[in-house]
Specification:
By secondary structure, the chain is an alpha/beta fold. It has 16 helices and 17 strands. The longest helix is centred in the C-terminal third of the chain and has 21 residues, at about 450-470. The structure holds NADP nicotinamide-adenine-dinucleotide phosphate (NAP). Pathway: Carbohydrate degradation; pentose phosphate pathway; D-ribulose 5-phosphate from D-glucose 6-phosphate (oxidative stage): step 1/3.
Length: about 500
């Protein structure tokens, strides 16, 4: 049977009633991402008709005051051409604000009462979105449990970071897991909600031509780049205690690596994808201290120019903070290996950083060169085939081939590319990752969320790197803002006879 595109899978029907509770309803994440995503879902008729959104914070807002804040946030964060006043009013009508300090036991009764006053309490899907500092997760879950509102079909959504290292991730997971079953816990990695990332699964597993080539026999290496132009901005305190490895590599980049390297799942939509991703994480070759020195580069930006504007050094951006030992990295490049049958000997080069020369996230699969050159008298270069998956901006995919330039006499060879741009191929709007992920939470579809064992396996792999950095006390290598990172990141790949792909 064919299923209509966009329809809910039969095993995960859209619930009739939904209470969507946002802890941290006045925060940046809620106003900039969650409300606009809920708006788009409502606009496209994807929300259950009977949906309430309960926004919680310590602020003494009544519903009207909060709705005014939400109206401003929607005006700011929903593109003007998609701004439909009827839908705005409908969404605002669903919104309520509750004043609640989660650390104050007395404040919770209002929330319990609000949730339980439902006629069909047992049949209502309750989503608890924890858009607050992770230090509050344990307190919140404990109260949800003791208040009798955590039972299935309740779901809890956790934002990164899940812990600071393996031990602290286990503490968070234990605390949340003592109230919610694993099937009720949705750990968001918004990269997994991006269309191009999901399309990677489709490209690999709904087509036949790539899969026979998808191994160490034909693939030379893989590059994953997440490059940001922004600095730390308002998140300086969080970032300085975290750094690029914890903030980006442990979650986003390793998740992308998993999707590239995983074996075909039995079926997408069940646990199989997460099972296969876990196997990749478990197959990552652990780093020794010598490996960390040799295969991992960390950097920290100095002042410079980004997109023509002068920007301060990281040290200046965090100057107001008391903390900081000067070793937080704003850039990481590393060489990883997946030690299994399919990938043995294929390096995975990962790099990410702030205040770099451009904003871009992409995966490049670089194939091996042809085994022999049958065009000895050619003009021009033959370059290895590459498949580029552009995650942002301009989501899409490019397959780079070598072609003959038209014309008589000899062979003039030229690299060309087959381009799939989402914006031009699919005229419809490309939804924000949060829209897809919020609807999956409401329907209870876990595939695009990280399971506990994945999070912990990713930490287990990162931990020797963090430990060696802490033990060595060596500072990160400086790089001027607005450049592609420290020169050591280029040495890392060039000593293997390879180079970072030029952005196209
Ligand atoms: P934020 O702007 O600082 O907002 C924090 C929210 O928590 C505010 O609504 C605040 O409201 C509320 N809050 C704080 N203490 C509270 C308490 N004791 N009781 C009840 N509410 C309390 O933070 P954010 O940027 O939205 O981030 C929220 C979480 O998402 C963090 O864990 C962050 O790491 C994660 N995250 C954020 C982003 C992003 O783009 N912002 C991206 C990825 C992950 P009151 O102070 O009024 O109570």
């Amino acid at each position: 049977m064919t299923r209509t595109r966009g329809a809910a899978p039969a095993s995960h029907p859209l619930p009739e009633h939904c209470d969507f509770t946002v802890f941290g309803g006045t925060g940046d994440l809620a106003l900039r991402k969650l409300l606009p995503a809920l708006y788009q879902c409502d606009r496209e008729g994807r929300l259950p008709e009977d949906t309430r959104v309960l926004a919680l914070s310590r602020a003494a807002y009544d519903d009207d005051a909060y709705r005014a804040i939400a109206r401003t946030a929607l005006a700011e964060h929903v593109p003007a051409e998609q701004h439909d006043l009827t839908v705005v009013e409908r969404l605002l009508g669903r919104l309520h604000h509750l004043t609640l300090d989660v650390t104050d036991d007395h404040d919770w009764h209002a929330l319990y009462g609000r949730l339980k006053d439902r006629r069909d309490f047992a049949g209502t899907v309750r989503v608890f979105y924890l858009a607050v500092a992770p230090v509050l997760y344990e307190t919140i879950c404990r109260h949800l449990g003791s208040g009798g509102v955590a039972a299935d079909p309740s779901r809890v959504v956790l934002e990164k970071p899940i812990g600071h290292d393996l031990a602290s991730a286990r503490v968070v997971n234990d605390a949340v897991g003592s109230v919610f079953a694993e099937s009720q816990i949705f750990r968001i990695d918004h990269y997994l909600g991006k269309e191009s990332v999901q399309n990677l699964l489709v490209t690999r597993f709904a087509n036949t031509f790539l899969e026979p080539l998808w191994n160490s026999q034909w693939i030379d290496h893989v590059q994953i780049t997440v490059s940001e132009t922004l600095g730390v901005g308002d998140r300086a305190a969080y970032y300085d205690a975290s750094g690029a490895l914890r903030d980006m590599v442990q979650n986003h980049l390793l998740q992308l690596l998993c999707l590239v390297a995983m074996e075909p799942p039995l079926e997408v939509g069940r646990e199989d994808v997460r099972d296969e991703k876990l196997k990749v994480l478990q197959a990552l070759r652990p780093m020794t201290p010598e490996d960390v020195d040799h295969d991992v580069v960390r950097g920290r930006y100095r002042s410079g120019y980004v997109e023509g504007r002068p920007v301060p050094a990281y040290d200046e951006e965090i100057a107001a903070l008391e903390a900081g030992d000067g070793t937080t990295e704003t850039f990481v490049a590393l060489r990883a290996e997946v030690s299994n049958w399919r990938w043995a000997g294929v390096p995975f080069y990962l790099r990410t950083g702030k205040r770099l020369d451009r904003r871009l996230s992409e995966i490049v699969i670089v194939f091996k060169a042809t085994p022999t050159d049958v065009f000895p008298h050619r003009e021009g270069l033959t370059e290895p085939n590459k498949l580029t998956i552009r995650v942002s901006p301009d989501e899409g995919m490019q397959l780079h081939l070598t072609a003959k330039e038209p014309g008589p006499g000899g062979y003039r060879l030229r690299p060309v590319s087959l381009d799939l741009s989402y914006a031009t191929t699919f005229a419809n709007r490309s939804p924000d990752a949060y829209e897809r992920l919020l609807m999956d939470v409401i329907r209870g579809i876990p595939t695009l969320f990280m399971r506990r064992d994945e999070v912990e396996a990713a930490w287990a792999w990162c931990e020797p790197i963090l430990q060696h950095w802490a033990a060595s006390g060596l500072p990160p290598k400086p790089y001027p803002a607005g450049t592609p990172g420290p020169s050591a990141a280029f040495t890392l790949i060039e000593r293997d006879g390879r180079s970072w792909q030029e952005y196209l």
